[in-house]
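From the pipeline queue, job 12 of 40. The input is one protein chain; the requested action is below.

Action: predict structure.
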Amino acid sequence: MMTILVTGASRGLGLEFTRQYLAEGHTVIAAARNPGAAHSLQQLERDSRDRLTLAQVDVADTTSVRGAAARLPAATIDVLINCAGVFGGEEQAIGSIDYGEWIRLLDVNLLGGMRVCEAFLERVAHSDRRVVVTITSGLGSLADNASGRYIAYRTSKAAVNMAMRTAAIDLRPRGITCVVLNPGWVKTDMGGPNAKLSPEQSVSAMRRVISTLGPADSGRFYNYDGREYPW
């Protein structure tokens, strides 16, 4: 069995990753900004038979991330899943950009993932699987942008794609596999009620992809169904 670290675990995809990995008998570290207010996560903790650890982590705060890494007892982390993210408001088109909000999205969606990777790097490096997965978005694809809008969100995801592709090269000598994974359009608070996939469907599919990842996949951008996604 593996030890999995999931950020953004209080809701949406992060919560579903936590639920499914626990159901398979794995040990999960569920990181959230305010786990004390995450009732579904707390219920999972009560039912987990000590296989779920809740961690207070604000990925936009370097001190918070490093402090959580120092406190957590897990010696190794087989799979690190950067799932924490924000979409931002509607003011993301030319002529109505909120630059403060843009900075916030970059801080969470780009820098947040890098903060977590750096803080937990040694635990990943000493595990059996040595996998880092960052949940990105098709909206971060340069090649697949035919509809415009959402400048702040798109650029934050395009930037984290580049960061993780670069990290994959830098970490290759240590045998660490880094990929970015598009979850599809999912019925979450972020995706909205008209999305095509349920969280259960998206996460089940992504977990199948994650289960097959190895060094030859490092630096790639995958769709939830296993197809490579255009950069």
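Job complete. The chain has one domain: 3-223.
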